[in-house]
Amino acid sequence: MAAPASAYKDRQFLAVIGDEDSVTGLLLAGIGHVTSPPDSQKNFLVVDSKTENAAIEEAFNRFTTERKDIGILLINQHIAERIRHRVDTYTAAFPALLEIPSKDHPYDPEKDSVLRRVRRLFGE
Amino acid sequence: MSGAGNREAVFPTRQSLGLMKSKLKGAQTGHDLLKRKSEALTKRIDEAKRKMGRVMQIAAFSLAEVTYAVGGDIGYQVQESAKSARFRVRTKQENVSGVFLPAFESYTTDGNNDFGLTGLGKGGQQVQRCRETYARAVETLVELASLQTAFVILDEVIKVVNRRDINSELDELDREEFFRLKKVQNKKQRDTAAQDAEMRVKREAAEKAEAASGATSSDKENESGTGDILGESEDADVIF
């Protein structure tokens, strides 16, 4: 079972949903990309305590289903926690969803959707 | 032995005992193999995730250094000046025993630098170091993403294979059961047909014998009372 080439051929960007520090750092590494106008879309979303959950979900949908040029979606774990039901039900291979730690929230392997899937699969 | 409800329906014969024994052995071998594989895979993913934790911590620290050196928040400036991705990924396929696993490979495009002005006034060195740290961190993340995607796809494949195997096994069992039932039905039909034929023959014989005995009884009635029964059975034998 091979995924068709069209499923990943054009996926060359990383996207990030995270707090300001994480986004800034990742942008400094050079992953930031804004598509050409008129419909210029950013591939990052800065989330703070004032951001609505609906806005996070919308960005999540945009990065995972609408845009076809994103290979990896990075999301801060504490933000993934806020839309946990969406993250847990996301099972597609592309784009790869990766939960990353943030400065204020150390990484907790117990919450990671993929690691939980690993455990569930092997019945631990 | 808790679940009497989900016990497999087995016909208690010596043959099916052997069949079940070999099935159990196969299942145990498969389970052991999967378990070993899973342990290796889980360990690798776990290690990668831990590494990611460390790397991201170091990166966050270097960003704090930048904030300190520049003397203010550079977040807004960075977000505004991001235009074109320098750091991109390429997807390629690896063939692992018949299953195509995609792998991400990171590469940087040369020539565009969105952050040429960041830290120009002061803290340029820190910014440079921070960028390098984060670039390394992202490389780790890309590595981890490859691993994870491989796992997700393998998971799918394993599920599909399992389902297929189980389905074909069930079909096989169904066919066997159906065949068995058909055989039983055939045999029963044959038996009833034979019985019917036998009954019909018997009845006809009885009728004929009756008719014959009716004819002879008038002749032999004078001779003896018991000869009647004897004569009847003899007649029936002759017709058979």
UniProtKB/TrEMBL annotation, chain A:
Gene3D superfamilies: ATPase, V1 complex, subunit F
KW Membrane (keyword) present: yes
Keywords: Hydrogen ion transport, Ion transport, Membrane, Transport, Vacuole
Function in brief: Subunit of the V1 complex of vacuolar(H+)-ATPase (V-ATPase), a multisubunit enzyme composed of a peripheral complex (V1) that hydrolyzes ATP and a membrane integral complex (V0) that translocates protons. V-ATPase is responsible for acidifying and maintaining the pH of intracellular compartments.
Cellular component terms (Gene Ontology): fungal-type vacuole membrane; proton-transporting V-type ATPase, V1 domain
Quaternary data: V-ATPase is a heteromultimeric enzyme made up of two complexes: the ATP-hydrolytic V1 complex and the proton translocation V0 complex. V-ATPase is a heteromultimeric enzyme composed of a peripheral catalytic V1 complex (components A to H) attached to an integral membrane V0 proton pore complex (components: a, c, c', c'', d, e, f and VOA1).
Family listed: Belongs to the V-ATPase F subunit family.
SUPFAM superfamilies: AtpF-like
Key word Lipid biosynthesis present: no
Pfam families listed in its UniProt record: ATP-synt_F (PF01990)
Major localisation: membrane
Lineage: Eukaryota, Fungi, Dikarya, Ascomycota, Pezizomycotina
Organism: Lachnellula hyalina
Protein name, per record: V-type proton ATPase subunit F
TrEMBL record, chain B:
Family annotation (PANTHER family): V-TYPE ATP SYNTHASE SUBUNIT D
Keyword Ribosomal protein: no
The entry's keywords: Ion transport, Transport
Composition bias, Acidic residues: 231-240
UniProt cross-references to Gene3D superfamilies, sorted A to Z: 1.10.287.3240
Protein name as catalogued: V-type proton ATPase subunit D
Record-linked Pfam families: ATP-synt_D
